[in-house]
Amino acid sequence: MTLAPGTPAPDVFSPGRIGNVTLRNRIVKAATFEGRCPRGRITDELIEFHTEYARGGVGMTTVAYLATSPEGRTDKHQYHWGMDDGGMLRKLTDSVHNEGAAISAQVGHAGAVANGASNGMTPLGPSRIPAPTGLAITKACTPADIDRIVEDHVRAARGAYEAGFDAIEVHFGHNYLVSEFLSPRLNRRKDSYGGSLENRARFARRIGRAIRDAMGDKIAVTMKLNMDDGVPGGFWIDEARQVARWLEQDGSADALVMTVGSSLLNPIYLFKGDAPLEEFAATQPPVIKMGMKVVGPKMFKEYPYTDAYMFDDARQIREAVDLPMMLLGGIVDRPSIDKAMNAGFEFVAMGRGLLREPDFPNKLREDERRRSLCVHCNRCMATIYSGSRCVLREYVPPIPPRGGHDTLQATSLTPQV
Ligand SMILES: Cc1cc2nc3c(=O)[nH]c(=O)nc-3n(C[C@H](O)[C@H](O)[C@H](O)COP(=O)(O)O)c2cc1C
Ligand code: SF4
After folding, report:
1. Average pLDDT over the chain, rounded to an integer
2. What distance in Å separates the CA atoms of residue 368 and residue 154, rounded to the nearest whole number?
3. CA 157/CA 218 separation, integer angstroms
């Protein structure tokens, strides 16, 4: 809800509520795929990864990404609901809770972003579209696939609740499956799931309602929804406003996280900043590496980075709905956080700023002039196959930064990969 004139904005370190969950403060660790689940096994490394954010002072950390369905994994080294986790998810939620933070599970289906070759399963899409990571073409979802995937989302919500998660974040962004259905460019269906916006949004709305019907308010439900795919003919903000309104009317979301970009067609649009093409190509098998030489510069376009870079778009959604919202994208310091709070966002979500410094909330509480050390090089993107991490993490600047990046920091990079 936008703030009424004269209403003071909440302080970021005051408790905030999403559904039935109260977070100790309003800083949320955004989903950053961890790469710590070999063949889907939940590991102690994954638990430590999230416990570090909890220790570092976040209100809630988000585990990314726990696939709803086996063919919805981006690759085989990913958990999917229905697998036996051997009690490790409960160990994970207990560990985070013991440090005073809440924990959310990002659940979703990767659609054409899934690597079918690695999963040993044909990737699914709204229509037959290229699925580049596995060099495949998707199978268009049948009505039975859609029904099953809706139920898989319900299974994920139930599994998350039973494992002690406080919230789930349903992934409706980045041209993963549901976002592919929303896209007029990728969805060429002729049935009741294609064509008009009402039809393209039907899948997302069915998932939201089915989760709410099954779970009531036992677990908080946030939804990560694209505002702009960043590609010609894609889903755009005028449609996103309407979809956000529908999700609010349906009563299926407790909060919205707005995002942009397409993991399929324009990944850097989500991040802004540098396009680490060479580092990314180095992680790929030879055929993809060769393909990236040809299409890479076109696909990995660079976009200028600015702090709080999704603010102007997200404010359009903020004005359209009353649901609690998180501002994501380039939240790096107190001014960007206060900008969000003053505009009526109840929470901020941080990805790279926390990858760089998991204890950033504690540091900011001690010194409000503190600015994130993340330099938006985006080289962490290339680490997702070997354990996502900031490549500058071990670097300790000799002079503590005060109120801005200094040249020392930017010219003394010592990558640890
Ligand atoms: C290494 C890495 C992995 C990511 N993985 C996911 C993911 O699994 N799911 C998701 O929705 N977003 C993912 N993101 C995007 C972040 O959630 C976030 O939207 C993006 O980094 C912009 O926020 P920031 O400026 O605070 O980093 C990832 C980002 C990074 C850097
Ligand atoms: S590698 Fe580190 S500094 Fe570079 S964008 Fe990622 S978190 Fe920021």
Report:
1. 91
2. 41
3. 10
The answer to whether 65 is a known catalytic residue is no
Alpha-carbon torsion angle 290, 294, 300, 303, nearest 10? 150
Rounded Cα distance between 395 and 398, Å, is: 9
Report which of residues 104 and 292 the model is more confident about.
104
User: Is 375 touching ligand 1 by the criterion CB < 6 Å?
Assistant: no
By the 8 A CB rule, do 176 and 110 touch? yes
The ligand placed nearest to the CA atom of residue 226 is 1
Q: Which atom of ligand 2 is nearest to the CA of 383?
A: 1
With a 6 Å cutoff on the Cβ, whether 259 touches ligand 1 is yes
Largest CA distance in the chain: 61
Q: For residue 170, give the 3-state DSSP assignment.
A: strand
Please pick, among 79, 176, 305, 309, the residue that the annotation labels catalytic: 176
| Axis crossing angle, helix 311-318 with helix 237-250, rounded to the nearest 10 | 40
Q: Does domain 16-411 have CATH number 3.20.20.70?
A: yes
Q: How far is the CA of 352 from the centre of ligand 1 (A)?
A: 7
Does the CB atom of residue 377 touch ligand 2 within 6 A?
Answer: yes
What pLDDT, on the 0 to 100 scale, is given for residue 134? 84
**What mean pLDDT comes out for the span 103-125?**
96
Query: Is the minimum distance from the CB of 381 to ligand 2 under 6 angstroms?
Result: no
pLDDT digits (tens, 9 = 90+) for 150-178: 999 999 999 999 999 999 999 999 999 99
